[in-house]
What does this fold into?
Amino acid sequence: MKVIILAGGLGTRLSELTEMIPKPMILIGDKPMLWHIMKIYSYFGIKDFYLALGYKSEMIKNYFLHYKELNSNFTVDLAKNSVTFHQTDDVDWKITMVDTGANTMTGGRVKCLKDFIGDQTFMMTYGDGVANIDVDELLEFHKKHGKLITVTSVHPGSRYGELCINKDNVTSFKEKPQLNEGWVN
It folds into this structure.
């Protein structure tokens, strides 16, 4: 199974951060958001990734080109011109990076990957698609319903906290509760 990750958008809603780095490279802990997305899929045995790059693509390319050096302890022996890695991350991913253009829209990015994906079923997510999803269950749902496309969606969370008021007294606070109207993917 292949996974397309749309990682080329401008990330305008986080512009204070994305002026310097592409949104998928924003750190969660000590790893980029993109790494966390890939880790979710690899937990379910899916390790063949196709990154649809665009805005600041060189930063994503450089991260994975230098992945071992950035995520390992190592010794450089200048006399022997050698590098010995002591610990390495346990990822065994295959990552294909395709520059799909800085201003290309979603459909255009997917079309740019057509020759890499072929006619087989694939998964696709956005470069900020960190979510608690059982990928096996999602794939089973897709197969069971026999549709061309399955979209995962949730009710969005509120942008604001909520006060519960009884007469003149605040009885409780709810921190940005989930809304029951509308869906987002």
Q: What stands out?
A: Strands lie at 2-7, 27-28, 31-32, 48-53, 73-77, 82-87, 94-99, 122-126, 162-166, 169-174.
